[in-house]
Structures are given as C-alpha cells and as structure tokens.
Amino acid sequence: MELREVTTVNEYPSYPRELSWLAFNGRVLQEAADERNPPIERLRFLGIYSNNMDEFFRVRVADVKRRILLKKYQPSEQEDAEDLLQEIQQQVLQLGQRFNAIYLDIQLELRKHNIELIDNFKLGELQSGWVKSYFRDEVIKHISPMILSGEEVSLPKALEDNTTYLMVEMTGSGKPQYAIVQVPTNELSRFIELPLHLNTRKKNGHYRRQILLLDDVIVHCIADLFAGFFEFDQIQAYSLKLTRDAEYNISDTLDQSLIDKMSKGIRQRLKSEPVRLVYDAAMPEQMLKVLSKQLGTSSVDSLIPGSRYRNFKDFIGFPNIGHQSLEFPAMPPLKSLEFEQYTTSFDAIRAGDILLYYPYHNFGYFTEWVRQASFDPKVTHIKMTMYRVAKHSRVIHSLLDAVRNGKKVTVVVELKARFDEENNINWARKMTEAGIQVVFGLTTLKIHSKLCLISRLERGKVMHYGHIGTGNFNEKTARIYTDMSLFTCHPEITSEIDQVFEFIEYSYRPYQFNHLIVSPTWSRPRLLALIQREIDFAVSGRKAEIFLKVNNLVDQQIVDLLYRASQAGVKIRIIVRGMCSLMPGLSGKSQNIKIISVLDRFLEHARIYVFHNGGETDVYLSSADWMTRNIDQRVEVGVPIYAVRLKQQILDTLDIQWRDNVKARIIDAKQSNAYVKRGNKRSIRSQQQIYDYFARITPGTQQIDSTEE
Known about the structure:
Keywords: ATP-binding, Kinase, Magnesium, Metal-binding, Nucleotide-binding, Phosphoprotein, Transferase. By secondary structure, this protein is of the alpha/beta class.
C-alpha cells in the first residue's frame, strides 16, 4: 500500500507535558526507593533525580514562567500557565518529601554495611580537630565569601546556576551581617572520608567508614572563616541553590561569529531570570526574607524548602567505599563477531550491515573504525556530526590524526547543545586550528543527527561507509545510555547521508530522500503517512500495528493521528522513557493503545519506529523523538533497517522490553506509574535479558572489559 499525504487531524485529549515530565522523574525516584537495587545505586538515583529536577526548572518551568510574563499579550494562555505552575509546585513539594524519606532510608541501609553519612554535629573531639586541619590545609584557599552589605554585591548576577552556596548570618551587639559562601565542589570532592583511626566505633569487628560532606566541613569551621574580619557572638549557615532560565538571548549582529554569539549566550545565562530557589528548610525566617529581597524573587518564582543538602546531583558520583555488592554487578560489553572476524572495520562493513546496541556492545568498535580511517591510505574524506562528545574524546583525537595524515575532515558542530556549549566551543576551536573544516550548520536549527560518513577510494571508485545512530559519539555516555548504531555501505543510504551533510551546508538546494527520514522538511509528512498507511490497512480489514520506542511523545499532530489510528483499529504499543502527552486506554479514543516505560540501571535512549505494513514490516532507527522540536526544528535522521537478520534482532529486543515485569511501569491516562504486574510469570528484567540475548546469538562471544574513558 502506497504512502499518502496526511494534512489534517482532529483535536484529542492531551496530558500536560510538564506534569508528564514530573511523572518520569517520579519513576527515577521509584528506582531510588527500590530495595532490590544496591544501596549505593539507590543513592546515585537520588543524584539523577536531583540533576533531572534542575534541568526541569531551567527549561520546562522557565518556559511556563515566560508564558505567565506574557499575560499582557496572551491572557488566556497566562491563566492556564498559572494553574499549571501551581500544580507543578505542588507536585514538586510532594516529590521532595518522598525524596527526603528515601534518603533517610538509604542512610539506614548503608549503616548496615558499615558506611555512615554523618554531619558536623556528630563529630567527636578528635574528628573535629582533623576536620579543622583539613579545612585550613585544603578548603579555605578555595573560598572567598561574598559580603551582603550595601549595593556593592548584586546577588542575582553573582550567584552561579545550580551551584551550592551557604547563607551565613553573623549576629552580635549590632546589626546582623550576612554573607554567601560557595561550596568549592569544582576544586574538591564533595565527599570527605574521615580517617578510620578517628572512629573507635566498630561493628562485627570492623571500623565503620564515615563520610562527611564538604558542605558540613565548611559549616563546622564557619567561625574560623570570618574571625578577625567581623565581630559576632553567634554565626550560623544554611545551604541554598539557585536555578536559572536556560533560554538564550543571542544577538543577531551580523559581524559577530557564531562562536562569539554562543559564548555571550552562556554569559547571559548567569544573568537570566531565576526560576527556583531551593533552601534548607531549617533556615530562619529572617534569613530567608533577606535572601529573597537580595535576589528580588517574584510571585512566580519557586521558593522550595528542602533538606540540609543542596545540589544533590553530586551524589551521581557517590563513591563506593564498601563491598562491591553495594553497586550493580558489572556487565562488560560484548564482542561483535561481525567486526572481530575481519582484519579491518571496512572489510567487516562491506561484508554486510552491522548493528551495535550500546552499552551491551563495546563502543570501541566505533572509535576503532574512525581510528583506522585516520591513517588508512585509501580514505579520502571523513564527515561527522558532533552534538555531545566526551571531554577527552578519542573520536576527535582520531579526526585530528586524520588531518595530519592528509585526509579531508568535515565536522558539523552543534554549538547550541544545551549545557554542552562550552565543551563544543572548545573542541570547535581546537579542530579549526588543526585544519578540520568545522561547519556550524544552520543558525535556526539544531543539528541533532548522529552521522558519520567515510569516503574510501577502492579500485578507482569512491566507496562510502556510513554510520547512523540514536546516540551521541560519546565514550562516556555509551557506557550508561542504551543506543543503537547501524554501520552500512548500502549505496543509496550512504548517498543520502552525504545529501544530509550537503543540506546542512547548502540548505537552499533541492534534495530528495527516498530512504532516510530527515527532519525538518521531510520528516513530518513521512511519519504521518506511515501512520496513515496503518490506518488504511485497518480500515480495509487487514492487520495493522505500530510499535514505537521513543524518549518523548508530545507532538500534538502525531498524537492526534495515533488517537485516530486507535479508533480505526490499529494496535499500538509504545515504550516511552520520559514525557508522553497521549492518554492511553480511553474508551472510544485510545482503547487500542498501550504504553509502558522501562527505567533501570541504563538510561533508555534508543528511538525505534516499527510499522507492520501489511506483513512487510518496516523498522527504523532514528535520532528523533516525536516532539515538535525534533520534527520541525532540528536536523534529525532516521534510517530503515533492510538486513533481515538485524531487523529481527531489533524486533526481538523490543519484545523483550515489552515483556519486562520487573522494571516496566504502565503509563495510563493519569500517569500513576504502577509497575507491570508479574503474576505467576517468570521474572523478566529487560536490560539484563537483552544483554543475555546478544551474548546468546553471537556464538563464541566472550565478554570483554571496556577500556573507554
């Protein structure tokens, strides 16, 4: 059945994406609460939750706040936005209460394993002396307090985004004095282990390992920091953290380079509107009033009382100072026999398309491919997109080697990759200086596709080898994000990859994509047509199914068409990690739609689209979520899987995830995050099962230790 153009859809119910995002972070909190997870990992999930919440306020809440500020021009939207903000604040407070209870529970669990998180109030005399010495020798040199007196200090401009501070109050015979102290986590570890010999308490014949946070080291020695400069009888300090709007305000000045614009945009973030102030709930009311006045917080700012410690995201890296059983067991990445049985990566790809599924497979096969290309005499040109890369990227070092070997190298750098701008700017400068052709693409579109194209001269002809993936070329995230990569030398696909690179540089030229699904221009009509084709099959009485795996599903037009597909009888299954505005299970609207979310030790990041197509199943891998920004405002690429063997592998992994009854939650119309019930079925934890699946289907494979940084 041919694809046909779809232009109009009806309006259907939509779950607010901001509240759906909070439901997602609620699932992260469930992982922290899950006693089946090792205690150190539970603590790290609290760090992930905190980091997610920071981004939520910087992006989502900031957007709601901007809509409220536009009430003069959009009064109806402002009313909805105010109600939404109120609901957000209420849910955030509820999640915060759960967070605090879980943190206390994890602390008790760690104590059973002889690990104790202590604060400055629990220090013995010997421990106190050691902490004071540590403060004098290691900490104080990194601290320069900001004194809040007069007009000299503009606190909104001075405070950095998502950085832990202490609000200090000094009282005596005169007027109270206030100061702000930054906790120097960029220079020192947040977690300070006390020497064992200072702890005389034992359990089961073992010393209890004790960790003190850097925050408490400073609080314990706060009087020593100000003594001699201020007179006071009492001094106290409480933690706080400010979150700002992450939106850019970039000048359109034509004589300013894009790099300079982005650098200025980053500086402007420090001056942008605060959207959240989280503070220690024990902070006295008068201190909070002074702080609020200094910051100039408005009625729509979020003032959120919290626990003693701020910037909990550092707990993502909480050290395991106990037994290895306190962490997840190792899952060393598997070998790929497709690559292993050939001398070069190019020989392997030429023998047939190759699928890698990270972190189950080793990302080193990609870095090795680029390394080989950097010195291969037959390679003439390497093209690559760069969205997020590691700070010490082997991939980029290989590209630098390629230039030194006389290869032509083109790298499309996305300078607007949120929160990775500085890293990308630094790499862009280094690559430009080395002679790499750095392309910044289109100023109005983010380049989010994951492409690499290597041109090789073989028997007098240029042969293209391509990579299309769902994740970034980042050695670090490839160990913790689940992503798929396709390596191919399929001539029509590699030709269209080359066209994508041309489109990025010369967007005004005409292009046609018959295989790839390319955003922005060609993606929406193609996706709508693929869904409509399943509707047409259902209407004609034939089997019709759609199976999706995405991070976010919030594009209203696509969601509306999925509702229509359900009404037509199309069976729809969706695995969504984060936001989902579609409300499944509604009688007469979405009764044929089922949605789950899988959250476990690895971050689910792959995007996969499956359409039954009358029995000739179409399977696509893509960099794009089904969000308006990915479809209309970014350069994204989806690739069809033509190799029958690889198509079946993808379908098998989707089936394993759909049958997960350990880490899968049901996404219902209320997004209540109920776990999929196991019943009397055997336990299926999909991430472990997928790992075992690839180990099983690769005869003779051996587990190998990843050496990636």
